[in-house]
């Protein structure tokens, strides 16, 4: 407000014409803002009704009580659902989900980085075709792609038959941690590759050449130039793999067993069979908190990279 | 390790070869990794496709080539009913979320107003929230909304195509808005200004200049919405009522009970549908590039 007294730059209108013109401009600006707001209003209302309010309802439910018949009692508020988050069973399932999600992210990064690098350094025509080949599984139905592994890993599936022919009989692959993590990697690997590809492809390779000219070894040039410059892609890809892996439901449900239960399945269990909605709501809030924390981490680091 | 060995072992002509050799070895490793990734991504799909033509009830044992399972699939009332539900929901949610999401994208990218950052945050949340959490949110919301509708207006609301469509729109708006915004951000704002300078009305400038320019983005967003709607299992299974299951939810129920030739055929059908959508979206993005 104080700046109006003393225009800091020379581009302000001549002082004599200033008051009325400024007023007009301000009016026009205001009308423009209002128009922009009105254009966005329908979606805003929709998201408030079908997203913000539901989120609030889950929050309220998480403090609710559960009657003996499984009905939720609202009004008699309690923190017991949150206390139960620290029970040994929940801690075990959370630890497992975290472990699986981290392992999935690391493997995806280790496999995806060289892959994205290879893709980004091909001639443009080849690159286009290879990129399409990555996009196809990315857009394909996750449920069906996971089901394919159930067929392959099953007890009469091709893989077990091949292993049996080689001499490994009595191998059980399905419903194991191995199958679950394999499914997670298979499902979310494209989420790692695409952001990595985007940031490596944009990279200025003359910088790498300059490093080589200054007698950096290949490894040194990679560590000091390529890797730091592709970091936004690494972070974006890791977040995009970690979040869905951590909250996964479909994949562990199809490929995992009772000893590989992940947090997503445990939440669904509270609603569909255990009928303990307050506890399920508290679990959902906890997942949401982890998700928001990692997303915040992403935006924080992204801001640093831009600056 | 072997990379270093070959480099120093053949080291007489120091000049170019010693540098080029490890590079070539790294190159070969990269190519090997790439082919393995492609095999990993495609072999399971290929195996599934082959087995869908297997004339044997036991999926793992080859019994000759047949179209039988595809015939059974098209004759199966449950599958066809679920498919019809899926198409209804995907159609409704794509149309509505494309209109709403495009408006939201334009509003956030081209205008400045108070409270915009909060709106921005709200718009991004559905993109990053896990399916399970969103499913729980919508389930409890509809429980409360139905209670309220019953108490206030005596309406007996039910779960069904309506609740599924409303839920799909809720997550699709955000995805459409993100895609449209990306397209708008890459556009030259001066084109719209030029149209305004040439005395085009706001609406006319929008219709004749902005809309054609963002059309590929809108189409891309719509295709993404369509794909997400056709793929969703978790949210749909929470808000579906009896008789309103979609194809993925129905297949998910079957899959949990085991592997059958019928599921193989339905799966291949769904894969072919997604691949066709990819091809369409590629054609669209090619136009976007021009």
Q: What is this structure's SSE topology?
A:
The complex is a heterodimer of chains A (307) and B (290).
Chain A: H1 18-61, E1 65-66, E2 72-73, H2 80-84, H3 88-120, H4 124-139, H5 142-153, H6 158-166, H7 177-201, H8 205-213, H9 218-229, H10 231-246, H11 250-255, H12 263-272, H13 277-306
Antiparallel strand pairs in A: 1-2
Helix pairs in contact in A: 3-7, 3-10, 4-7, 5-7, 7-10, 8-9, 10-13, 12-13
Chain B: H1 2-9, H2 17-51, H3 68-75, H4 77-110, H5 116-128, H6 131-153, H7 161-185, H8 189-197, H9 202-231, H10 234-239, H11 247-257, H12 261-289
Helix pairs in contact in B: 1-2, 2-12, 3-12, 4-7, 4-9, 4-11, 5-7, 7-9, 8-9, 9-12
- Specify the helix fraction band of chain A: over 70%
**Order of helix and strand elements from N to C terminus of chain A:** HEEHHHHHHHHHHHH
Q: Number of domains in the coordinates of chain A?
A: 1
Arithmetic mean of pLDDT of chain A: 86
Low-pLDDT stretches of chain A are 1-14
CATH superfamily of the largest domain in chain B: MetI-like
Number of domains of chain B: 2
Identify the overall geometry of chain B.
globular
- What's the pLDDT, averaged over the residues of chain B? 86
* CATH architecture term of the largest domain in chain B: Orthogonal Bundle
Largest sheet of chain A: 2 strands, antiparallel
Radius of gyration of chain B: 26 Å
Derived from helix and strand composition plus strand pairing, the structural class of chain A reads mainly alpha
Main pleated sheet of chain B? none
Model description:
The complex is a heterodimer of chains A (307) and B (290). Chain A has a single domain (87-306), classed as Orthogonal Bundle (MetI-like fold), CATH 1.10.3720. In chain A, 74% of the residues lie in helices and 1% in strands. Chain A contains 13 helices and two strands; from the N terminus they run H-E-E-H-H-H-H-H-H-H-H-H-H-H-H. A two-stranded antiparallel sheet of chain A has the order 1-2. In chain A, strand 1 (65-66) and strand 2 form a beta hairpin. In chain A, helix 3 (88-120) packs across helix 7 and helix 7 (177-201) runs antiparallel to helix 10 (231-246). In chain A, 40% of the residues are buried. Residues 1-14 of chain A have low confidence and may be disordered. By secondary structure, chain B is mostly helical. Chain B folds into two domains: 2-51, no CATH class; 69-289, MetI-like fold, CATH 1.10.3720.10. Chain B contains twelve helices and no strands. Mean pLDDT of chain B is 86; it is low at 1-19. The interface between A and B is large, with 82 and 84 residues.
